[in-house]
């Protein structure tokens, strides 16, 4: 507020400042005695400070800017005053008027609504800075400067080099004349096929730039994750009335599965089992309790030996300084050794010329070994296609074989009892064919304990 008052005093003190509004009301307020209040706080300043004179002054300045385009004190005299010399004389009309070009009626005046909507303020509109800004102007300017430098050096950009390779569209080709729909000899029109042909025959550069080019489908997406069939047929021994030998073969297979499971369980038990030799006895417990209490006789004998080792280690061996003759001899021996190794390498390379036959045989043997390894690797990959892969943290567990013993065979469809679950069988099939990862049923864990409370009516009876 102090700055506004200072501005008002500075401008008002300038000679020639004119006010358009009357200040009769402000004179009464100045003449009246001001109320003395405590202004040691900002809240009191805002409450008891009178800024009407400042507001009137600023409003007067804004009014002058709107009506005259600036302060009257700054305007020249020619723009404020004019010389009145009376009404101007009208020019005499020519007697010879051209026919058909006579003035008819008065001049058209603008409508009142148009005059209201016109801009009546002389203040120029603020400059729109955003209208002159260009997105990424600095980046585009840097790219243009770089292109000018390359053009000065005679370097052609890669984008311009690719332009001749583009296949220009044949715009001069005439459109085929459409045939009538009732023509029986008219070829069959396949709307989907023509759309595909138009996309394939279009310019690849145009399709890439417009985003209409389809993404090439990877060949791996056409491969199945497993070669196993969706529904596996059970062995002949799993029928309701199987052959004896087929049934025995299925029983043998189920027996081998159970034996394998039993061996794994026994292996885990052996690993967890405690060794009796490692268990503590009364003698070992007593020895641990008296450890460190009984002095050993060997400690005194070992003391002198340790002192001798310390003396030997503590001695400092002084290296003898080599003479000039010894250093020259070592340098000559080093040069001779390097020369000998170089001669040996040159001789070995010369000898390899006579070993071309053996080298070819060794190379052929290595290539054959590489081919054998590739065959083994390929066979292993083909074998893995029929095996479930590790897709998650859990390992695939095959489903138990549904087999019936000899005394459990029904022999007839009427007495056959349903076994297994179709839903579980399909779920296991999806896991085995690598379509979903192996999962297990979520275990329900109660967060809070169940609290049993007797009702009041039941408590009253008991």
Could you characterize the architecture of this molecule?
The chain is built from 18 helices and no strands. The chain is 49% helix and 0% strand. The chain is mainly alpha-helical and 462 residues long. The longest helix is centred in the middle third of the chain and has 29 residues, at 244-272.
The counted number of beta strands is 0
State the secondary-structure class: mainly alpha
Element order: H for helix, E for strand: HHHHHHHHHHHHHHHHHH
Could you tell me how far the N terminus lies from the C terminus, measured between alpha carbons in angstroms? 87 Å
How many helices? The count is 18
Main beta sheet strand tally, sense and closure = none
**Helix percentage range:** 40-55%
> Which whole number gives the mean pLDDT?
79
Beta-strand portion reads under 5%
Chain-wise SSE layout:
Layout: H1 2-13, H2 24-31, H3 42-48, H4 52-68, H5 77-80, H6 112-117, H7 129-132, H8 137-153, H9 158-162, H10 191-201, H11 204-210, H12 244-272, H13 282-289, H14 298-314, H15 324-352, H16 356-384, H17 422-432, H18 456-461
């Amino acid at each position: 507020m102090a700055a506004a008052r200072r501005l008002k005093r500075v401008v008002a003190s300038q000679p020639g400042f004119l006010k358009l509004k009357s200040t009769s009301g402000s004179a009464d307020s100045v003449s009246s005695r001001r109320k003395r209040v405590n202004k040691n706080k900002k809240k009191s300043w805002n409450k008891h400070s009178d800024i009407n004179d400042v507001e009137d002054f600023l409003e007067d300045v804004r009014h002058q800017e709107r009506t005259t385009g600036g302060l009257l004190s700054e305007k020249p005299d020619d723009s404020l005053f004019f010389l009145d010399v009376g009404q101007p004389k009208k020019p005499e009309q020519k007697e010879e008027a051209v026919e058909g070009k006579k003035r008819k009626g008065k001049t058209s005046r603008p409508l009142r609504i148009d005059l209201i909507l016109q801009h009546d303020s002389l203040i120029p509109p603020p400059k729109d800075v955003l209208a002159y800004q260009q997105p990424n102007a600095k980046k585009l300017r840097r790219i243009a400067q770089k292109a000018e430098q390359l053009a000065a050096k005679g370097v052609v950009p890669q984008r311009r080099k690719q332009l001749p390779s583009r296949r220009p569209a044949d715009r001069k080709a005439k459109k085929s004349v459409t045939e009538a729909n009732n023509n029986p000899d008219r070829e069959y029109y396949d709307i989907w096929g023509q759309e595909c042909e138009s996309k394939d025959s279009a310019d690849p550069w145009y399709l890439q730039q417009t985003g209409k080019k389809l993404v090439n489908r990877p060949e791996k997406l056409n491969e199945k994750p497993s070669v196993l069939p969706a529904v596996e047929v059970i062995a002949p021994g799993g029928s309701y009335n199987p052959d004896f030998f087929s049934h025995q073969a299925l029983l043998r297979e189920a027996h081998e599965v159970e034996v394998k499971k039993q061996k794994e369980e026994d292996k885990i038990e052996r690993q967890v089992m405690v060794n009796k030799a490692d268990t503590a006895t009364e003698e070992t417990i007593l020895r641990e309790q008296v450890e460190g209490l009984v002095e050993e006789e060997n400690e005194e004998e070992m003391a002198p030996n340790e002192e001798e080792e310390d003396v030997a280690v503590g001695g400092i061996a002084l290296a003898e300084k080599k003479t000039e003759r010894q250093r020259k001899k070592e340098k000559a021996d080093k040069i001779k050794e390097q020369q000998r190794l170089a001669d040996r390498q040159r001789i070995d390379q010369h000898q390899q010329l006579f070993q071309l036959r053996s080298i070819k045989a060794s190379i052929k043997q290595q290539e054959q070994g590489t081919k054998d390894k590739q065959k083994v690797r390929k066979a292993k990959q083909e074998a893995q296609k029929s095996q479930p892969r590790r897709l998650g943290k859990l390992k695939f567990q095959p489903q138990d074989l549904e087999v019936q013993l000899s005394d459990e065979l029904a022999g007839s469809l009427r007495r056959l009892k349903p076994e297994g679950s179709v839903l579980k069988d399909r779920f296991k099939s999806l896991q085995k064919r690598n379509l979903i990862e192996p999962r297990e049923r979520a275990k329900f864990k109660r967060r809070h304990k169940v609290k049993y409370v007797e009702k009041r009516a039941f408590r009253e009876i008991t």
